Amino acid sequence: MIMKNLKKIIIVLISFVAIYSILLSLTDVTQISDSLMNIKLEFLPLIFGLVTFGWIILFIRWQILLKSNKIEIPLKSSFTIYISGFALQFIPGEIGEFLKVELLKNKFNISRSKSSPIVLSEMFYNATGLIALSIAGIWFFEFAIYIFGIFSSLLILFFYLINKKKYFFKIINYLIKIKFFKKYVESFSESVDVLQTTTKKKVLFYSICLSTLFWFVECIAIYLLLLSFGIITVDLLTLLPMYSSSIILGVISFLPLGLGVFEGSLAGFLNLNGVNITISLAVVILSRIITRWYSIIVGLIVLKITHGLTSNSKYGTTV
Fold this sequence. Notes:
mainly alpha, 14 helices, 74% helix
């Protein structure tokens, strides 16, 4: 699977390097070097610890979503599958977030029609958590009001569609004509009931709470990163909507990890709050390495160690 899409992976990686290089070329390298030399290293273990703790929060949500649809697999296997799912999250399309679908299929013969909607539900809850996080500090950052309004409307529309089969299938029939979506959209059309199950009652409540907690923990990690650079002009309540708005802008750009959009947005927001633009870009790129590339590297390692893409369904049953 990875070899088949090797060209896409290489192109995306080159794009990341190019964008980061361009951003850094627009800054004062000497100033960045001085800032990195003076960074307070005692913050780093706590920052990485918080980011790792965030994975545990998401894994608990993953378990809730699996159990709500009667998917029972060994806890250890479930954890390695979830962590392995980070490996290709920088690739747009079916390879990224839906890697877990392939892993469940290969290892436990769980049909895509049952697991694909769970991954889609995760995306829904990630977005919902961002909205909830924005509310916490929306009055401290006016721009977040507009992002909150637009994104909330889209989430309400999505929630409405999955609970109205007639309109849901109209969207499915349109998407199935697009090659990019076809493989998994066909699965969605067979499993709207799974989507409804993962967005109702206790599952909805716990998943939203866990998603919000995840983004809050990650935002604290970024706040500590600012403090490690000696930046005290941005408080946590101001950072919450700034960070969530930057991620939302990156999401709606449809670029892998919001490449360039997230970095430029957050650096600009920090600059508006008194942080030198050169330092802002350095902090943002470093935050991206810590919060995303760290998980990607760990995901790739776990995927390699566990031979995740090797078919082995002896522990599971066909569903």
